[in-house]
Design a protein that fits this description.
This protein is of the alpha/beta class and 271 residues long. It is 45% helix and 14% strand.
Length: 271
Amino acid sequence: MNIKFFAPRWGSESISWKDFFPKAKIAGYDGIEFGIPFDFPISTMDEIWNLAAQHDMLLIPQHYDTYKADFSKHFDAYCAWLEKLKPYNAIKIDSQTGKDFFNFDQNYSLIRAAEKFTQETGVAIYHETHRNKFLFAAHIAKEYLEKIPSLQITLDISHWVCVAESFLEDQPNAVNLAIERTEHLHARVGYTEGPQVPDPRMGEWQQALQAHLVWWDKIAERKRVKDEVFTITPEFGPFPYMVRLPDTGAPISNQWDVNVYMMNLLRERYS
């Protein structure tokens, strides 16, 4: 098994791309995962891909910026985003796809659009288990995974923990099916009342951390048995995911340090 770690651009937008690439490289990351909004300039995309080549780093673009409630407009916008990415090669794409209130056929149309993109470009798209999107909860994801055998995902199970207000003890079949279809991992730790613990290094959050490690270990073992590449993005985010101190507004912990900690923890665990 070959593990590749990706630095999240999320939370570091104030740093220029020119400075961000060497920072991530020095920290030990193999690549960068970054969101591409609709108004992202082509010149910036060209800069990112050129810098990735210069620093010998991999890229995972992320789709998140389709919010339209009208399905027809949503579908057109999603297809336009995919069209924008066609000239750019990537190891894979993470997609926060659809809406939680779209029906099955509507969300399936978006999945088919992503499959068409993969057929045309050779770049796989993995749909993220994210609140507000079509894979927002474990029991809903189970239905999609059972009905669509080709569906593969980015597992960010912190969202499901938050949605279910539990560590999913009563949904083992849904979780195990998701683990079998996971091709990219967002390594963030959620808890029963939120999608991100303030700091996974602290003793009070060890129960949550251990629950997530059990799930992640199963993915790692599957990848090891199949001798496949395992891509991981530690994705602890900035405010409002990161709690702030009420008196100063300062973050309760350092986002960059927490993500580097998670990368090093998993690298040692799976080496």
